[in-house]
Amino acid sequence: MANIKSAKKRILVAQKNAARNKAIRSKVKTYVKKVDAAIAAGDAATAKTCLVKAISEIDKATSKGVFHKNTSSRKISRLTQAVNKIS
Fold it and tell me: 25-68 pLDDT, tens per residue?
């Protein structure tokens, strides 16, 4: 356990940031799963609407520093390709 005040504060800040990042990552996964479920069902219209929401959430996560920009680009690209295949 840390003894120095600044080290104790860093532990608290790190825990808070980890919880925030985990929540954002979880939200992104939820939206990606919705797109994947629509693709599996073959529902192109639902997949496209869910794709827009998923892209928005991925971009928000990237702007907050949860995802690297290349990671988000890769995720968006793969999702878009999958949706375009069933359309």
Answer: 999 999 999 999 999 999 999 999 999 999 999 999 999 999 99
DSSP per residue, 9-53: HHHHHHHHHHHHHHHHHHHHHHHHHHHHHHHHHT-HHHHHHHHHH
Domains of the chain, start order: 5-86 (1.20.58.110)
What is the model's pLDDT at position 36? Answer: 97
The pTM assigned to this predicted structure is 0.89
Instruction: Please count the residues of the chain.
Output: 87
Cβ proximity of 41 and 77 under 8 Å: no
Q: Nearest 10 degrees: CA dihedral of 38, 54, 78, 81?
A: 60
